[in-house]
């Protein structure tokens, strides 16, 4: 089902990212116990459900149809009839964010940055989407404590607690952490595979050609980048946007980008950035602090006239920073 470099998942956090809980296990495979529980709850016989997925290839799910069929067969062993439903990628993601997918659905995650907050807070925190239904306040509390600490050693116990609570509540079932890679023509200089799916083509020379062709699984569903969460869109956005800080290819070290230097207070609640001089937009305007603030405002303030993307969910902002300002009822 998965290529070399993949591993069976025992938790939502991947082992290469801070916040992974060493030694944590998932529940053993026990179909007889599962069937007994369903019978005791009066669910069996004649229980039917769905398994929904989008037919695209991802490192976390390279063979979605095959995996869906295997899960379908395992459910049949315990008397559950599961219908497989395939959706268009963009519609699937929108429905997942709104909590509109009944039964089971198959989806994964690739890191935007190497920290537990990108995995746990984004999916299980108080600002997360409705993908997993109503949230769990005890998970929120653990994540809040972990986010207020600067020292990784002080943070880890709270992520251990959150990972254990996710196992207890079972809003999702981890399957695997998939291996990933990228292939280039041999004459492409500076080629690399980003561990966060964010290759910057401007760092490469396509063998002296004036055109660089990148093949991916499909067209970006949209390019208002703040309102997209799919890899096809985000990789395109990576070529047109710059952030204050960036990750160095190959090492993952935090490096300057639009900011030349930065600092934070001990509580990590106040950050100061010094912007690079002379940065120009495509229309000739010069980057200044107001542009940085506005980039946050149009995502944060749901009443702002520019808070209008492809579907208006702006999933990343509440997932990382909490609720919207002026959120609709």
Secondary structure elements and pairings:
Layout: E1 7-8, H1 31-40, E2 47-54, H2 64-77, E3 80-87, H3 89-97, E4 104-105, H4 116-124, H5 137-147, H6 152-169, E5 176-177, E6 188-189, E7 205-206, H7 231-240, E8 245-247, E9 254-256, E10 259-264, E11 271-275, H8 289-300, H9 316-321
Parallel strand pairs: 2-3, 2-4
Antiparallel strand pairs: 1-5, 6-7, 8-9, 10-11
What would you note in describing this structure?
By secondary structure, the protein is an alpha/beta fold. The chain has two domains: 7-175, Dipeptide-binding Protein, domain 3, CATH 3.10.105.10; 188-321, Dipeptide-binding Protein, domain 1 (Alpha-Beta Complex), CATH 3.90.76. 30% of the residues lie in helices and 13% in strands. It has helices spanning 31-40, 64-77, 89-97, 116-124, 137-147, 152-169, 231-240, 289-300, 316-321, and strands at residues 7-8, 47-54, 80-87, 104-105, 176-177, 188-189, 205-206, 245-247, 254-256, 259-264, 271-275. The strands form five sheets. It has a three-stranded parallel beta sheet. A two-stranded antiparallel sheet has the order 1-5. Helix 2 (64-77) links the parallel strand 2 (47-54) and strand 3 (80-87). Helix 4 (116-124) runs antiparallel to helix 5 (137-147) and helix 5 (137-147) packs antiparallel against helix 6 (152-169). The longest helix is centred in the middle third of the chain and has 18 residues, at 152-169. The radius of gyration is 22 Å and the shape is globular.
């Amino acid at each position: 089902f998965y290529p070399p470099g993949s591993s069976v998942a025992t938790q939502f956090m991947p082992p290469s990212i801070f916040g992974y809980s060493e030694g944590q296990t998932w529940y053993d495979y026990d179909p007889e116990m599962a069937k007994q529980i369903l019978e005791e709850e009066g669910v069996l016989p004649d229980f039917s459900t769905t398994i929904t997925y989008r037919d695209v290839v991802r490192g976390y799910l390279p063979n979605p149809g095959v995996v869906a069929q295997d899960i379908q067969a395992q459910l049949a062993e315990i008397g559950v009839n599961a219908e497989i439903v395939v959706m268009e990628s963009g519609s699937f993601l929108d429905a997942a964010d709104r909590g509109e997918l009944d039964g089971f659905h198959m989806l994964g995650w690739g890191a935007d940055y190497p920290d537990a907050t990108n995995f746990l807070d984004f999916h299980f925190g108080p600002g997360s989407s409705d993908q997993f239904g109503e949230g769990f306040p005890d998970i929120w509390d653990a994540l809040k404590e972990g986010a207020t600490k600067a020292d990784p050693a002080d943070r880890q116990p709270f992520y251990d607690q959150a990972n254990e609570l996710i196992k207890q509540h079972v809003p999702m079932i981890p399957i695997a952490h998939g291996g990933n890679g990228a292939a280039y023509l041999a004459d492409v200089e500076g080629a690399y595979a980003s561990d966060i799916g964010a290759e910057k083509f401007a760092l490469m020379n396509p063998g002296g050609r004036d055109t660089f062709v990148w093949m991916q699984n499909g067209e970006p569903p949209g390019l208002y980048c703040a309102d997209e969460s799919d890899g096809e869109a985000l990789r395109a956005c990576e070529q047109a946007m710059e952030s204050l800080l960036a990750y160095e290819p190959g090492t993952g070290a935090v490096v300057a980008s639009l900011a030349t230097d930065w600092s934070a207070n001990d509580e990590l609640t106040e950050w100061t950035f010094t912007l690079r001089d002379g940065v120009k937009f495509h229309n000739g305007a010069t980057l200044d602090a107001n542009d940085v603030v506005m980039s946050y405002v149009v995502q944060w303030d749901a009443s702002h006239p520019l808070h209008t993307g492809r579907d208006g969910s702006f999933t990343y902002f509440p997932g990382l920073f909490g609720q919207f300002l002026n959120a609709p009822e």
